Amino acid sequence: MARAYGRLLSYAGKPEVTQTDLPDAVQAFCGAAEARLTSSSAITYTEELTYALLIVHPDVDWTWLQTRNRIRRAALRGVKKREIGTGGAQDRGERDGHTWPGDQQQRLQRSTGRVSDSLRSRVASTGWTPRSQRQAASLEPSRPVAQSIATWSASRRTAVVATWDRYQRLAAQIDLPAIPTPNSLDAFVKAVVTRNSDISEVSLADYIGRIYAACCFLYPEQNWSWLKHDWRAMKALAEASRDKRSQLVPIEELYGFGLQLMHRAVDMPRTVEAATMYRDGLFIALLALRPKRRSNITSLKVGGTLLLDANGIPEKIVFARTKNGAPSATPYPSQHLGVYHDIWWQQFRPILLGDRPDRGDVWIGKQGEAVRHDQLWRQMRKRTAAPEPVGLGRAIGVHIVRTIYATSMAEATSDPTLLRLTPWMLDHRDPRSIEPYNLQARGMAAAAELERAADLLRVRDQRP
């Protein structure tokens, strides 16, 4: 950021620019950068300059520059999507089947239409035969398939299509048939386990279930009873590899642990170790107050998914797309973490960033690059697994915090109005999604009540 501001002063030819001339100088500098550099480099220059100006001149309104950057960045992303031809699908795992064989691409396109539309097209055709008069094996591949994925939720479609794409890529690598067979399915499972030894049996069963769903809508004329049997058998025998109940702690305890890490880092010398500790503490505290999905919360970027107000204070967390396909916008808890965020940005983040270009990523690693979501997940589990009082004595992952949050809210209140806010905070479309957490909270409350009753009985029996 300091380098970006130095470029501005060098372009203006002055050691300092007054606030009156500053907007014109910034506009001229941005125009010159766009004229001389590529679009990608120019927007990086202007974004770095924006961060510097928000710190050096916080009393000046830079909303126009932030808006300009967002428009330029959105236009640049649109160009890249058209050049790649995937519409940015690789970013979130939602693929349109462009790498599949031609026959599968056509079947996927036909299956996106609703069943009612497919039936209308059949009735309108002269060669259509009612289902009751057709033989079981008379369905031609050229006809629109009977099953449709148009009624699926965005998250289900994304998961099924991504898993099928994974199977197709693996089939091309190890020479498997494009259409699954019992032998190819066994080879697929072995290859997945070999590449990811930490995968659970439940996840493997989910993979098989998604492949079964993809086969049903891509090749409905074939008999997939064997695959359905394998999927159900694997699902029945699968056992969770992680005990989630052991990771449940009160959400306020997790939030307090994040604050504790930051306070310890502030008292330490300004080293890389202190900076990473402060980063992990801020991440845990923010996650406790805003339990977003791992891929979203770990990709925060100033000017993109983290919006600042005119004073440079975090104002809102926005995601153009979440797992269920819908956008998300949540206020940043500045009243609780505003000061901590400022300390991170001013004191500790520059230690990790070093002399690397600042691209606005909130979470920075030891090498100055944006931290991957799996790295933050490991760091969080490592911090929380440490024995008390250094840690919490139990390894807590990023995603389980969503369960902790929902359960804690259900335990704290029975007000239906407040409980309806939990799905909004978790970016769930269906309010019924929190019912398991409500049941779990009531079960834990009932268990505690039984324990108190048992204690009273034990005390009564011990009386003389």
TrEMBL record:
Ranges of compositional bias, category Polar residues: 102-115, 123-136
Xref: InterPro entries: DNA_brk_join_enz, Integrase-like_cat_sf
Alphabetic keyword roster: DNA recombination
Coiled-coil region list: none
Chain spans, region Disordered: 82-142
Name of the protein in its database record: Tyr recombinase domain-containing protein
Organism of this sequence: Rhodovibrio sodomensis
